[in-house]
Design goal:
The protein is of the alpha+beta class. The chain contains 9 helices and 9 strands.
C-alpha cells in the first residue's frame, strides 16, 4: 500500500509540474479539486517539489495562489506505460502516412521510447502496431459526413482494442437505423481522416467493418478474445489499398 501511495504521489507531482508550467496562475484549492485530494496534500506536494529544486511561489491567505517561475522548465518528461504506448503508435501512424512535415526527429523519439520498454512490452507494442492499418484517404463524400465520436466511446474502444476485450456497441448505419452488436475489435483502420474498427461481429458471425464516428455507445464486457488469422478479414478490406 505504501508503495502504491508513493507512486501515486510521484505521478501527481509530475502532473502538477506540467499544470504549473501551462497555467500562469493556479490556486491550491483549485489544484486540490482537480486532483481529487485535500489542499493540505497539495501543499505537501508543492513543498517536496521545492525541495527538488523547482522555483514555486505561493501566496499566503485564503486564495493560496501558486506560480511557477517562467524561466523554469519541466525538463525530463515521465510517461506512464499506456501513455508511451499511445505516443509510440501515433508516431508509427505518422511515419506510415509518409507525411513530409515534422518527421525529422520522429525516428529518434521512437527509438528512445522503444528503449525504455522491457523486451516483453516491446513485443506487445509491436503486435499492437501491426493491428493498425493505413488505407487511402477517405472520399470527399465520406469526409463530408464524418463527425467526432463521443470521448467516452473512444476511450472504451481504445481500451478494448489494447486489451483484446469484447465490446457491446450501439451502431448507427448509413441509413440512420441503429443496432446492437457484440464485436471483437481486431484492427483499427485509418482512411484519413476517418477511423474504422475491423472486428468479428458476433451477431452476423463474420468479420465486419464499422465507422468509429457511428459508434453511439460502447461497453466493455470483460470477455477476452483471441486474435483470428488476418486472412479471415481479407474480404472486409478489399479495395482499401492498405499499406500493411
Amino acid at each position: 500500500m505504501a508503495r502504491t501511495n508513493a507512486n501515486g504521489r510521484l505521478r501527481r507531482m509530475e502532473l502538477l509540474a506540467v499544470q504549473l508550467q501551462q497555467e500562469a496562475h493556479c490556486t491550491i484549492s483549485g489544484l486540490a479539486a482537480q486532483f481529487g485530494v485535500s489542499a493540505r496534500t497539495i501543499a505537501r506536494d508543492l513543498s517536496l517539489m521545492r525541495d527538488q529544486g523547482m522555483s514555486i511561489d505561493t501566496d499566503r491567505g485564503r486564495g493560496g495562489g501558486v506560480r511557477l517561475d517562467s524561466n523554469w522548465g519541466v525538463g525530463r518528461m515521465n510517461l506512464s506505460y499506456s501513455e508511451a504506448v499511445d505516443l509510440l503508435i501515433s508516431i508509427a501512424v505518422a511515419e506510415r502516412m509518409n507525411s513530409p512535415i515534422f518527421l525529422a526527429n520522429l525516428g529518434s523519439v521512437r527509438r528512445q521510447l522503444v528503449a525504455s520498454f522491457s523486451p516483453e512490452k516491446r513485443n506487445r507494442v509491436n503486435r499492437l502496431n501491426s493491428r493498425i492499418l493505413i488505407g487511402v484517404t477517405a472520399s470527399t463524400y465520406v469526409q463530408a459526413s464524418v463527425a467526432s465520436p463521443p470521448a467516452r466511446v473512444v476511450q472504451t474502444l481504445h481500451r478494448a482494442f489494447v486489451d483484446q476485450e469484447r465490446l457491446d456497441i450501439t451502431y448507427r448505419r448509413e441509413d440512420g437505423q441503429t443496432s446492437r452488436r457484440s464485436i471483437d475489435p481486431h484492427y483499427l483502420l485509418l482512411k484519413y481522416p476517418v477511423w474504422y474498427v475491423v472486428a468479428f461481429d458476433h451477431l452476423r458471425q463474420e468479420p465486419r467493418t464499422f465507422r468509429c464516428d457511428r459508434l453511439l455507445a460502447a461497453t466493455g464486457t470483460g470477455t477476452p478474445f483471441r486474435l483470428r488469422p488476418k486472412a479471415e478479414f481479407a474480404a472486409s478490406l478489399v479495395g482499401d489499398d492498405l499499406l500493411v
